Amino acid sequence: GADSQRGLNYPLLAALASKNPASRARAAASLQGLATDPSRGPVIAASGALPQLISLLQDGGGTRGRDCAASALRHLCQHNSAEVRKAVVAAGGIPGFVAVLRQQTASKARVDAGMALAFLAKSQEHRAAIAAESALPELASQLREDVPAGRDAAAQAFAALAASPELQPAIIAEQGVVRRFVAMLPGADPSPGQPQDAQPQEHRTAFALSFFAHLAACPQAPQRGALAESGALPALVAAITASTALASTRASAA
User: Fold this and answer.
1) Do residues 40 and 96 touch, judged by C-beta distance below 8 A?
2) Could you tell me the pTM of the whole model?
């Protein structure tokens, strides 16, 4: 196998660090497969492979290398412990993911970069670092784009980032973000030019309810004012009512 009880084997690590783009891409593909297994996360993190994977986000392995590296890192952020996520951040993961989002060209790597930021943003300790890397404008751009999976990734990221009150003014200031979340509520009229979401209605509603719940919980006037001005309140009431009714129906059926 590509790994052992003690760690990743030398040929895999050597290929990942080589100057041959094809070899680096193949190594990244192997790590992508390993990263889907949560038990392998600590092995990958301890092996020294993370900086090489992050470097592949920019160059050195072609499109395949970039996509496989982004997918591997996304899985490490999604399925692993806080220690593994910290290792990804310490290796430069956040600026690496933001740099991928800045590329603007639709790609699988951009979706995975957005998802990786969303999973990191669930931990309070990483939110300020994400904002400090100027991720908010890039996520706002991803939230408005025509790639459904990219919009879903950005929505999850913003819903998590909004849990930190100190970030809320900057989030609100990003063009179209609040309106986009209003459009995710059931029964809301999408703004002109706003794309429809890929997620089922229930998932879309969950993103929006989480986002607006964080704004509503903040005592500061700007956040409350933005919530009122967005036109979200009637749709929020309807969504909460519908969610409560659905929960009651499921409880009765259980």
Assistant:
1) no
2) 0.85
First to last CA, the chain: 44
Residues near 145 by Cβ (< 8 Å), separated by ≥ 6? 106, 151, 195
Tokens 């990263």 correspond to what residue? Answer: 35
Annotate 91-114 with b (16+ C-beta within 10 A) or e (fewer): bebbbbbbbbbeeeeebbbbbbbb
Residue pair 171/161 in contact by the 8 Å Cβ criterion: yes
Q: Cβ–Cβ contacts within 10 Å for residue 161, how many?
A: 27
CA distance 30 to 178: 39
- Residue-level pLDDT at 154: 95
Burial zone of 138 (CB within 10 Å; 0-12 exposed, 13-18 middle, 19+ buried): buried
**17: CB partners within 8 A, 6+ apart:** 24, 52
Check the CA dihedral 198-240-227-118 and report its sign.
negative
**36-70: buried (b, 16+ CB within 10 Å) or exposed (e) per residue?**
eeeebbbbbbebebbebbbbbbeebbeebbbbbbb
- Could you state, in chain order, the average pLDDT of each consecutive group of 10 residues for the chain (254 residues)? 58 93 95 93 93 92 93 93 95 97 87 97 95 96 90 95 93 89 74 51 81 80 64 65 54 48
Whether 56 contacts 95, CB under 8 Å: no
C-alpha dist (Å) from residue 167 to 13, 40, 106, 145, 205: 38, 33, 27, 23, 22
At residue 1, the pLDDT reads 45
pLDDT for the residue 47: 92
